[in-house]
Amino acid sequence: MAEEMITDLSRCGTPVALIAMGGLFKFSIIKKNLKALTAGVSFRLIVIPALMITASIAFGFRGKALTGLMCLFAAPCAVSSFNLAVIMDSDRDLTAQLVVFTSLFSLGTLFFWICLLRGAEFI
């Protein structure tokens, strides 16, 4: 019973963190952070995955291994990075925006990476 309760609580971690972060999210500050936000989202979802997937292909990774690497490098920012920004007294508004926008845009970019790699028959 206790193990089941702890398992159920552990499944709530990410949704609760997203809800808490959403409560602190400020749309009015997006303009202030637009340059850093654009750079952060593009690097996280396009530039770094392009470089790392290309390097992985050059090293001979294919199939499931390449799919795992693609998921690793093309994934959105982790929700826990917001908690770290708060603890480290960093720019929590920018971090929250990066988490939200990389999560939103990763729907399209992950689809793109999967289609590209499947079309080229790497996965």
Automatic annotation (TrEMBL):
Q: Which family does it belong to?
A: Belongs to the auxin efflux carrier (TC 2.A.69) family.
Starting at the broadest rank, the lineage of the source organism is: Bacteria, Bacillati, Bacillota, Clostridia, Eubacteriales
Q: Which segments cross the bilayer?
A: 12-30, 36-59, 66-88, 94-117
Subcellular location(s): the record lists: Cell membrane
Source domain of life is Bacteria
Question: Can you name the source organism?
Answer: Candidatus Allocopromorpha excrementigallinarum
Q: Tell whether Transferase is among the UniProt keywords.
A: no
Gene Ontology terms: cellular component: plasma membrane
Instruction: Give the InterPro entries listed for this entry.
Output: Mem_transp_PIN-like, Na+/solute_symporter_sf
Q: What is this protein called?
A: AEC family transporter
Membrane-related topology note: Multi-pass membrane protein
PANTHER family, per the entry? AUXIN EFFLUX CARRIER FAMILY PROTEIN
User: According to its UniProt record, where is this protein mainly located?
Assistant: membrane
Q: Which UniProt keywords apply?
A: Cell membrane, Membrane, Transmembrane, Transmembrane helix, Transport
Any one GO biological process: transmembrane transport
